[in-house]
Write a structure and sequence with these properties.
By secondary structure, the chain is of the alpha+beta class. The chain folds into two domains: 1-33; 36-149, Histone H3 K4-specific methyltransferase SET7/9 N-terminal domain (Single Sheet), CATH 2.20.110. 20% of the residues lie in helices and 32% in strands. The chain has one helix and ten strands, in the order αββββββββββ. It has a ten-stranded antiparallel sheet, with no helix packed on it. The longest helix is centred in the N-terminal third of the chain and has 32 residues, at 2-33. It is elongated and about 80 Å long. Bound molecules: calcium ion (4 copies). The site of one calcium ion has 6 residues, from loops.
Length: 157
């Protein structure tokens, strides 16, 4: 009779053990999918990569000045770059944002020229020629384009 009362306990222990093994396996798999690099060898990661289970790159992040904060980020869809963001002055805001078409070609460039944390210059790019098509500005300060600049006005920065 004592054996029948210990069996459920053993079963429970076995289940807990198996669950722990599975959790460990998931952690190892996640680490493999999200590798980190230490480019300057200071012991702290400065590049982070994320992959899908299928091995497609999902995103990469870089700390290019090694201050511990991400200052460049790229997002990929189907292994193709879809968006990039760069913090030019390392204040935590990404002053430059690029958007890309399904072939990974730049089609829009958003910039925060006055470095207030909001994009204020939005430039459409021809994917084929890589030339600027037109620019818009954000006049009401909501971070969205609302006013199209006259052709040639891009030069004023
Ligand atoms: Ca480092
Ligand atoms: Ca940084
Ligand atoms: Ca910045
Ligand atoms: Ca701004």
């Amino acid at each position: 009779m004592s054996e029948s009362s210990t069996n459920p306990k053993r079963l429970l222990l076995l289940l807990v053990f198996m669950a722990a093994l599975i959790a460990l396996g998931v952690l190892i798999a996640r680490d493999k999918m999200n590798p980190m690099l230490d480019q300057n060898g200071d012991g702290k990661p400065d590049e982070w990569y994320r992959y899908t289970f299928g091995g497609d790159l999902v995103s990469l992040e870089k700390d290019r000045n090694y201050d511990g904060k991400v200052d460049h980020r790229e997002v990929f869809v189907g292994g193709v770059i879809a968006e990039s963001m760069t913090d030019m002055n390392n204040d935590g805001n990404f002053e430059i944002r690029g958007k890309y078409d399904a072939k990974g070609r730049l089609i829009r460039l958003d910039r925060d020229l006055n470095e207030d944390g909001r994009y204020d210059r939005f430039t459409a790019i021809d994917a084929e020629t890589e030339k600027q098509l037109y620019s818009e500005i954000d006049q009401d300060g909501d971070g969205e384009p609302d006013t199209r600049l006259a052709p040639g006005a891009e030069a004023d920065k």
